[in-house]
Write a structure and sequence with these properties.
Layout: E1 3-7, H1 11-22, E2 26-29, H2 41-50, E3 53-56, H3 66-71, E4 79-85, E5 96-97, H4 109-120, E6 124-128, E7 130-132, H5 138-143, E8 149-150, E9 159-161, H6 162-174, E10 180-183, H7 192-203, E11 210-211, H8 213-216, H9 220-226, E12 231-232, H10 235-241, H11 250-257
Parallel strand pairs: 1-2, 1-3, 3-4, 4-6, 5-12, 6-10, 7-9, 8-11
């Protein structure tokens, strides 16, 4: 039986694990939903010893990668995957970015450094934009009165449905995709305002009014999110993985969640 070890069995990686189990794989994992504690080095090394494939969804901590720092020596010879972020591209002033675009110049310098370390190990690095899916979408923000429409003309984001991440990672494993970076994003970068407006339409409620950044009173993290403006191209994943998003725009994605 093929065996996959997942570091960090969270929202996205948990769905990848479920899909791989459905294809007959044995899964061991660290994380709150995993079966092995990250700090139990003996147990982790035993599981890694029998795993042919390793996927990490663990984000940087204290400016470095906890998985590579602690277990990097045990990863040699294995198929490696890493869930990264399109935040590594920084602000492109609304322009398109692809896997050949410069990285490391944005606010997520630690993520860019970890991304580069995994690439040096010949990993498949999946760069992900804003992730949404069941229980984590514009619907929740609207229902909780936490949705904003901010008056920032020209501001766009890319996003991806969690199930499209799953399909991209699964096909990369099953087809033994070439090492390198892959953007897994939908086909239509758009403003957050448009997404909130569509969510409100589907829920039959009035969208929140347009407000300035100051009036929105966002957290520092959210303000940082709005400080970057880019469109993420997904052509490489389509070409090399023969992948295409099941939810090519936010419209199909939100409709599936309702």
């Amino acid at each position: 039986m093929a065996r996959l070890f997942i570091f960090g069995l969270g929202y996205t990686a948990g769905r990848i694990a479920q899909a791989m189990r459905g294809s007959g794989w044995h899964i061991d994992a660290s994380g709150s939903a995993g079966n092995i504690a990250f700090d139990d080095m003996d147990a982790v090394l035993r599981a890694l010893g029998s795993a042919s494939h390793v996927l990490s969804s663990v984000p940087p901590a204290d400016g470095t990668d906890p998985v590579l720092d602690r277990y990097g020596h045990a990863l040699e010879g294995k198929w490696l995957g890493y869930l990264s972020s399109t935040g590594v591209y920084g602000d492109a002033e609304g322009a398109w970015v692809d896997e050949g675009s410069p990285t490391g110049g944005g606010r997520r310098t630690a993520r860019a450094q970890c991304d580069a370390r995994w690439l040096e190990l010949d990993a498949r690095v999946f760069r992900l934009p804003g992730i949404y899916g069941p229980g984590r979408s514009a619907f929740e923000r609207v229902r909780e009165n936490k949705a904003h429409r901010i008056d920032l003309p020209g501001q766009v984001f890319s996003r991806v449905h969690v199930e499209d991440i799953v399909s991209g990672v699964v096909v990369a494993i099953e087809k033994d995709a070439p090492a390198g970076a892959y953007n897994l994003a939908d086909d239509l970068p758009t403003s957050q305002n448009a997404v909130i407006k569509e969510a409100c339409r589907l829920l039959g409620t009035e969208p929140p009014p347009l407000v300035s950044m100051e009036e929105a009173d966002l957290s520092p993290m959210a303000r940082g999110f709005y400080a970057e403006n880019r469109r993420v191209a997904n052509g490489k994943a389509k070409r090399l993985l023969d992948w295409k998003p099941r939810y090519p725009t936010y419209r199909e994605g939100l409709g599936s969640l309702l």
